[in-house]
Amino acid sequence: GVMNTDNMSILGLTIDYGPFQFMDGFDPAHICNHSDHQGRYAWNRQPNIAYWNLFCLAQALLPLIGEQEQALAALEPYKTAFPQALEARMREKLGLTDAQPGDRELIDGVLRLLAAGWVDYPIFWRRLSRHVAGDSLEPVRDLFADREAADAWLLLFSERVSHIPRGLAADLMLKTNPHVVLRNHLGEQAIRQAKLGDFSGVQNLLLALQSPFDESPQS
């Protein structure tokens, strides 16, 4: 969504319930709102927008703080805290239970690979999770037109995850990468039905999204 300064809570949560989209094919420059013509709130710019929002909050509180240097010092930890938190989340998606040198390159590599092929983001992560859990690698490879590039990254990933008990890595990935995700067309369909007085679509989506990691036949 659009991360205006009034769309982020003091807890760091984004609360924009206006124009938004769910990204399917991975595009770091994806713009969620059609009115964001400059791409100010594009996916890859949102971490910096979060910092800007905090900067605006600091400005608003400056009369109470008194010292501009103190306000700026309070913002400084974000510059390291956010990248560290993001890297930790990405390691979980990869089933990595510890941090090792080279992890950032592995993460950056898969994001570049996904962006180059505009690969469906949630499907990739779930299929990769299923592969680590014992399924064939082919459904993962089938997502990429550039098989050579995909195989090169998958080899690096296989070498990295081989140092972790397979079951432990698979369990972490299956608990991190959801099986059920909300798609734009499903939300739009449910909204149209609701406008006609039929809330079954909304109810079905809510039911499925309550257990996003379950692979039940209904999902």
Tag the structure with descriptive keywords:
mainly alpha, 219 residues, 0% strand, 55% helix, globular
Describe this structure as you would to a colleague.
By secondary structure, the chain is mainly alpha-helical. 55% of the residues lie in helices and 0% in strands. It is built from 10 helices and no strands. Helix 4 runs antiparallel to helix 7 and helix 9 runs antiparallel to helix 10. The radius of gyration is 20 Å and the shape is globular.
How would the blueprint of this fold be written?
Blueprint: H1 46-65, H2 68-75, H3 78-93, H4 103-117, H5 121-132, H6 138-141, H7 147-161, H8 166-174, H9 184-195, H10 200-209
Helix pairs in contact: 1-2, 4-7, 5-8, 9-10
List unreliable stretches of 5+ residues.
none
Over the alpha carbons, how many angstroms does the gyration radius reach? 20 Å
Summed over residues and divided by their number, the pLDDT gives a mean of: 92
Helix content: 55-70%
Q: What would the principal axes of the Cα set say about the shape?
A: globular
Encode the helix/strand succession as letters. Answer: HHHHHHHHHH
Largest sheet properties: none
Total strand segments: 0
Helical element count? 10
Which structural category do the helix and sheet elements fall into? mainly alpha
N- to C-terminal distance? 26 Å
- Portion of residues in beta strands equals under 5%
